[in-house]
Amino acid sequence: MSIYWLVNDDNKGPLALVKVTENTAVVIAGSNLALKGFEGGTPNSLISESWYFDLLTDKPYHGIVGEWIDELGPAEDSALRLKKLREKEAKQKTANAKRARALNLSEAELAEIQELLIKDVSQNHIADKYRVSKSFIHRLEASKHRNVPKVRGSDSEALEATDIAALQGANIARVGVSHE
Known about the structure:
Helices cover 44% and strands 22% of the residues. The protein is an alpha+beta fold.
């Protein structure tokens, strides 16, 4: 007969779901660190002052077992969890550096990026070249298309799309540009 225990930590919440069969404890969901709390298949609350153990059931098909497996995820050891945490922190550090770099781009660099986008250079290539995120380049290009001003001629008639493109390409400032 198997008994299912939920190992909790006062500071971190649920740690693991442990199955005990014939004096042998096995983590079936959560952290393998929870095995330290079992001696001979019996919970030992003296291992950690913040740990406590909840007896869930002795029936493997009970719904509560499945719910805790879903919530805690697959069993993993603390070294793997630490590795995943460090990878996540490294990705966040890289993202923060790219975000800071994007905020500090000069007007000349932004103009170069715009020129490269006009020449249909890959957004990935541009992001790598200027050490910014790909999403920054994508937003920059999207804003270029979204904020196209409506240009009116001197006689208040709308110009054709080819005229607007020619004006934007030549960077000619026109009187009467509106963002309607």
